[in-house]
Design brief:
- The chain is built from nine helices and eight strands.
- The strands form two sheets. A five-stranded mixed β-sheet has the order 4-7-6-5-8. It has a three-stranded mixed β-sheet with strand order 1-3-2.
- The protein has two domains: about 150 residues, 3-Layer(aba) Sandwich (Uracil-DNA Glycosylase, subunit E); about 90 residues, Ribonuclease H-like superfamily/Ribonuclease H (Nucleotidyltransferase, domain 5, 2-Layer Sandwich).
């Protein structure tokens, strides 16, 4: 960043040359086609990676620039950029760039695709071409999103069921369900399913307290047993254990 400060432009070192080269190969000019923003407004001491509190101080101005420019795609290069944009939402367990790279995230707040990947300096430090190949694929995938409309966001429709008769009308090739229980082990004394949710699509779900009466529970049992309806869950092993 010292070279960048002297020249008054970003990406003036080796990592910048690598980024320009790869972007050029993908048909993008780093300075003509892109707006380049650092995670912090001032160069950290001794070119160190910015601390989270430093990024927190600069986040408001960065968000304002993004709001003003309204980009279609936001490429997050490295962990500092990832924290700058997503750290305000993920208070815990944000993780590093390895957890997020390769995703193309439709973001409602910025009305843009958010595409995290490695910082070019990280790619440059690694021996071999594998990291550069993966990194290039991430950037190519991000560039393709420029002409991809964001998915339509609808207000979720959540129906609280008093009886489970509505579950008889569920149709679809894939439905998600989830349990809230009093513990992890279904056969432990006193453990039971308290309530459940069944999502029939990305915007509609049913939630209900789990009946203790088998007759009242029968529509849910039939739903689980229906081979024509595919089932999925965030932790299928857990839900499956409680469903047996």
């Amino acid at each position: 960043m010292e070279v960048e400060d002297k020249r008054g432009m970003p990406w003036q070192g080796k990592s910048g040359r690598l980024l320009k080269k790869v972007y050029r190969r993908l048909g993008v000019d780093l300075f003509e086609d892109c707006l380049n923003i650092n995670a912090v407004n001032c160069r950290p001491t001794s070119d160190q990676t910015p601390k989270n509190y430093e990024i927190d101080c600069c986040r408001k101005s960065i968000n304002q620039i993004i709001d003003d420019c309204q980009p279609k795609v936001i490429v997050l290069l490295g962990g500092s950029a990832l924290y700058a944009l997503l750290g305000r939402r993920w208070k815990r367990d944000l993780g590093g760039i390895l957890k997020w790279r390769g995703f193309t995230i439709p973001d409602r707040d910025f009305k843009a695709w958010i595409c995290p990947t490695f910082h070019p300096s990280y790619v440059e430090r690694l021996e071999g071409k594998e990291a550069e190949v993966v990194w290039t694929q991430d950037l190519e995938q991000a560039i393709k999103k420029v002409n991809t409309p964001l998915p339509l966001f609808k207000k979720p429709r959540i129906t609280v069921l008093e009886t489970l008769e509505a579950l008889k009308d569920i149709k679809g090739s894939l439905v998600a369900f989830d349990y809230e229980t009093t513990g992890i082990k279904p056969h432990a004394p006193g453990h039971r399913i308290v309530c459940a949710a069944v999502a029939v699509n990305e915007n509609e779900c049913f939630v209900f307290m789990m009946p203790k009466n088998k007759k009242a529970l029968q529509p849910f049992i039939d739903f689980l047993a229906n081979p024509m309806i595919g089932k999925m869950a965030h932790n299928m092993k857990f839900e499956e254990t409680w469903s047996v």
